[in-house]
Amino acid sequence: SRDTAVTPAPVKKRVVTENIEFGRVDFGEAEVTEPKFGRVKKGTSDVFSLLKKVENKKVKMEELRAAEPEKADALVEEEKWNKALKHADGEKVKDDIALLKKAAKRKRKAKEQSAKEWSDRQKTLKKSMMDRQKKRTDNLKARSEGKLKGKGGGIKKKSRPGFEGSARKKKSI
Q1: What share of the chain has pLDDT > 90, as a percent?
Q2: Which pLDDT band, with edges at 50, 70 and 90, does 75 fall under?
Q3: Cα 121 to the center of its chain, rounded Å
Q4: Taking a C-beta distance cutoff of 8 angstroms, is the pair 75, 64 a contact?
């Protein structure tokens, strides 16, 4: 007997009054740019200038914190948001003082090593040039002494095969 039919429960309809967009966050007054894919490189990459900039920023922040703590806190919060936005945009934020100091030290050491290698290379080059010059002067000296000996009945050079007669002898024939 099929007289007991199952009726579905009434569906409650929800009314949405706001438009919701997922994946979009309103950051207020912050400047939002389109995301860039791949490696994004902005600003200076010089470690020494970055380190100087970050240290100056830290000193100014401490002065501001001593004068106006509320304003300093608001500025710190804004910097955190800007940093997060830059990270989300794909930009590398280089503001860690310890890492920048480490990189600066590494760069300084590499520069010193390169300078040392260059000076060694220059010394080696100078030494080899002096050795070659000495060898040349010795050879020239030995050659001039050999010529002086050769005029007084020294060793004659062997003639090349096929060139037995000289040009003077051929003219007289």
Answers
A1: 50
A2: very high
A3: 23
A4: yes
Residue 83 CB partners (closer than 8 Å, separation 6+):
93, 95
Q: What is the per-residue pLDDT across 80-121, written as a single tens digit (0 to 9) for each?
A: 999 999 889 888 889 899 999 999 999 999 999 999 999 999
Q: CA 159, CA 62: separation in Å to the nearest integer?
A: 94
Name the token pair of 71. Answer: 């304003």
Burial class of residue 82, CB neighbours in 10 A (0-12, 13-18, 19+): middle
